[in-house]
Amino acid sequence: MVGIGSRQQSAEHGGHRPQQDDGAGSFPGAPKVGAKAPRTETRFVPAALQLVRALDLPAGSCAFEENTCGFDSVLAFRPWILNEEGHYIYVDTSFAKQGDKALLLSSDLQAEEWSCLRLVYQIATSSGSPSDPSQLNLYVRFEDESFDRLLWSANEPSDSWLIASLDLQNTSKKFKVLIEGVLGLGNTASIALFEIKMTTGYCIECDFEENHLCGFVNRWNPNVNWFVGGGTSRNSHSVLPQDHTFKNELGHYMYVDSVYIKHFQEVAQLISPMTTAPMSGCLSFYYQLQQGNDNVFSLYSRDVTGLYEEIWKTNSPGNPAWNLAEVEFSAPYPMELIFEVAFNGPNGGYVALDDISFSPVHCQNQTELPFSAIEASCNFEEDLCNFYQDKEGPGWARVKVKPNMYRAGDHTSGLGYYLLANTKFTSQPGYIGRLYGPSLPGNLQYCLRFYYAIYGFLKMSDTLAVYLFEENQVVQEKIWSVLESPRGVWMQAEISFKKPMPTKVVFMSLCKSFWDCGLVALDDIAIELGSCQSPEKLPPPPGECTFEQDECAFTQERRNRSSWHRRRGETPTSYTGPKGDHTTGVGYYMYIEASHMVYGQKAHLSSGSLRGVAGKHCLAFFYHMYGAGTGLLSVYLKKEGDSEESLLWRRRGEQSISWLRALIEYSCERQHQIIFEAIRGMSIRSDIAIDDVKFQAGPCAEMEDITPQSSGYSEDLNEIEY
């Protein structure tokens, strides 16, 4: 028997045991990267690993033995260096300094089937924990997008090789993989790549025939651990089986043996890579238990918050040969699988595991449809979607308001529909309007997001509340209510919840007193799987900016009192500017402060450089132009090499007290920038603001607002239904 990463040594004779779980996986036998990547020393690489790496690798893969396999360093940045003896490439402080970047770009790739991208890497640093560590980022660059999508990032130093496993959903689009190394603080920092491998299939699948074990790791326990079984060495106190993959002694599998057990309830855990894309279907694997022994073999799922859920457990000893297990597995948000064996003593025998696979179709006799977030969400532009009210008469009305200076429009676009509960018209205090959402399957983690606005009401508490209604019970549980809120501002609410039984979300408006009633508005209800506060959420793609953290990639040639400013809340001057941002109502936006400028003065906000691609682009953003003296807001396209910009879109004068959405469609096959230009109007009441900028590939889905130099609204937007 052998430990993870070494197939020659016996644990019985002091051989290698699995290393402690450090959250990624490791290669104990792989060459170590020191403070500086070696170029003259001879480094040992296990023969089995050399054999695997010598095989023809699929597209998008490289073992960095003799060359970089079509991966090229981007010339505008530091190069990745191929080690003279092969085995890896690196960037370090012997030829680069802190903050320098090295970019590695693949050739064109395709993943028409679901694929798994594995990256074996090491980030090394000098002793101590630097405040500014080195960072390794992996992006996906689709052929029709002008920006790169961040898929994965790491900055934890390690003294061994680590493995990252990343799921790539199937797509018909061509794409490239971009690997970025950014050197951190310290004079001995280095980043190295040992192997990149892209294979068809899911990252949670494994037959345990390769040294990296597909990124599965053992959680270290002094007395009981998962080991690699099979191969030419078969030393054990138990009679271990042949592997399932090849049905002979040369193949490999994972097993755990009770021979070292010293206490009752000793537990061994084998942990899969974390899923990185939503998946739902049938998980299958083969297992074998030694007959008549007291052990418990279970399978758990665990999300990024650490929440465990048992999804399978052995209920009988099974056959002496390999047994097939099929488990319905749904991972709508990042999850890992934990194969756990609990022993009650040293006579617990062994448990073996092999050939873990996944299929996107349901297991046999499973007909339950997966949860659809689209069916549980609504922006009320067309109808009530799958929401309904419990009675006829006054309740929640679907309304639309023409953009004006006195009433805010909807949150979706400033021009569309939303729901309004008008408790002013009730004939009795205690009026309640209930809005029910669709049924949500039980035992799943949900994130509910919605926007609300309150008008009137002297006392605001409980004017709007959210309840959970379990379908097999009469009792409703309140999970959220308004405490205090700015009046007339669209505010975002976020609620995470999980219930064992099917549940409906209920929105309830309430007027406690006949003398204190008002209006409650509701819009853009969205229900997603997972927690609202996921600790491992990646930053938004470079094509999106909400200005919540910073100004993203936007820049200004000069910064002074007359520049664009990042702000939250109301602007200093009355009767102009927004009361809050568009993203959450309490977040940040960019604006010009007219009181610091003179009539006709301009402020420019430029995007980062965008890659030119064939086809159409869509730029979406929200703008706010409220104030009697409001000037101009224009959007320009500046192509690389051109001295002048071309006008894409313009608005002149006061538009609305609401945030309004703009959709701009354009084409550009050259490197380019987008420039927002605001011009101060005739009075200090001419603040102009923008928020929630988003670049998308392809034409705009809705064509309401894309005509350049238009200064008014089309006739069909003058409709008032309330």
UniProtKB/TrEMBL annotation:
Compartments (UniProt record): Secreted, Extracellular space, Extracellular matrix
Pfam families reported for this sequence: MAM
CC terms in the record's Gene Ontology section: membrane
Superkingdom of origin: Eukaryota
Every MAM domain range: 60-205, 204-365, 376-534, 543-702
Assigned keywords, A-Z: Extracellular matrix, Glycoprotein, Repeat, Secreted, Signal
Primary localization class, coarse: secreted
Extent of Polar residues compositional bias: 1-11
Classification via InterPro entries: ConA-like_dom_sf (IPR013320), MAM_dom (IPR000998), MAM_domain-containing (IPR051560)
Disordered: region residues: 1-38, 557-579
Entry protein name: MAM domain-containing protein 2
